[in-house]
Design goal:
The protein is an alpha/beta fold. 41% of the residues lie in helices and 16% in strands. The radius of gyration is 19 Å and the shape is globular.
């Protein structure tokens, strides 16, 4: 496994990298940190609250206080680092203050890119999203065409803008970045992450009706594998990481098969779902609390995105864990 032309690690541990990981305690960043630490690398974990979250890190990982919105903290965290894995970002589909999406996903990424360029890092792996690609409902798509039009939700648009600014830094300023594009991520770790929360609620029979539609999914450990493999790929390359597309009913059935007592709720008709989302967000603007069904979530579920991870499988040697096996590991860890 390589970063550029040098080994990320080898069996003898002869090459050791100093790696900064943003989002180090998240569903995406957590497994990556554990893999890097197990391989003997010096890992710096960027955390907003090291005192509160540092205990979840593996031994030897250095927690550093920092925030994507604080450029000075990023410059300090990057001292001595030659590699960056950028996994942090807001993945929610609703926030009481939508401007936070831009502040974290776009401006935060901009600050990190500037700090990485100033530090002269050798490798920058950017965790983007499948949403940035041109796609049609129900039709498989790959990495070949980026969507040129502004995307539909604040989350999608800010991830699109972040992706564009990293790509511009590659083309115009020599940032040695590679891109990974996971679908909906689940796995051991934070139970409040979007898909993990839905799985937990289904397991506890707390979902009275399923929203219509479905989503492509990928196991968090497999995303970590893909991030490491992508680090050795050519600068500017893009890699979709996705296992399979599942309807929400198929997700619920898999949970019911894995958890004794879990039931499969009925599916909400699409018109009702749209009404629930619209009314819920109207109430949320007053209460400042998240709606039960955000319109962004409904948009994602009904977009029927079918990403094709053939390139990662054939060119990187990436593999995906089947959903039933990933669910088993996810619930076993709780």
């Amino acid at each position: 496994m390589t970063i550029g032309d040098t080994m990320l690690w080898d069996a003898e541990g002869a090459v050791v990298r100093q790696v900064l990981v943003t989002g180090a305690t998240g569903t995406v960043g957590g497994p990556l940190v554990h893999r890097l630490a197990a391989a003997g690398h010096r890992v710096v974990a960027l955390l907003r609250s090291p005192d509160g979250a540092g205990h979840t890190l593996p031994a030897g990982v250095v927690p550093v206080r920092g925030d994507l919105t604080d450029p000075a903290s990023l410059r300090s965290a990057l001292e001595g680092c030659d590699t960056v894995f950028h996994t942090a970002g807001l993945a929610e589909q609703w926030l009481a203050d939508p401007s936070v999406f831009d502040r974290v996903n776009v401006q935060g990424t901009r600050h990190l890119v500037e700090a990485a360029l100033a530090a002269g890092v050798e490798c920058f792996v950017h965790t983007s999203t499948i949403d940035v690609f041109e796609r049609a409902p129900g039709r498989p798509f790959d990495e070949s065409r980026l969507e040129s039009r502004p995307l539909a939700t604040a989350y999608e648009r800010t991830k699109q803008d972040a992706d564009r600014l990293v790509a511009a830094a590659v083309a115009e300023r020599g940032l040695p970045a590679r891109f990974v594009h996971p679908s909906a991520v689940y796995g051991p770790g934070r139970a409040d992450a979007t898909l993990n929360l839905a799985l937990a609620q289904l397991a506890r029979n707390q979902v009275p009706m399923l929203p219509p539609g479905g989503m492509p999914v990928v196991f968090a450990e497999d995303v970590a594998e893909g991030q490491l493999l992508a680090a050795g790929a050519p600068v500017g390359s893009r890699w979709i990481l996705s296992d399979t597309y599942l309807t929400m009913r198929e997700v619920a059935r898999a949970v019911a098969a894995a958890v004794p007592g879990a039931k499969v709720p009925p599916t909400m008709p699409a018109p009702l779902a749209r009404t629930v989302a619209a009314v819920g967000e109207g109430v949320s603007r007053i209460t400042r609390r998240p709606p039960l069904l955000a319109s962004g979530v409904l948009h994602f579920l009904r977009s029927h995105s079918v990403p094709d991870a053939t390139a990662a499988r054939t060119r990187l040697g990436w593999t995906a864990t089947p959903f039933d096996k990933g669910l088993e590991a996810t619930f076993a860890a709780r």
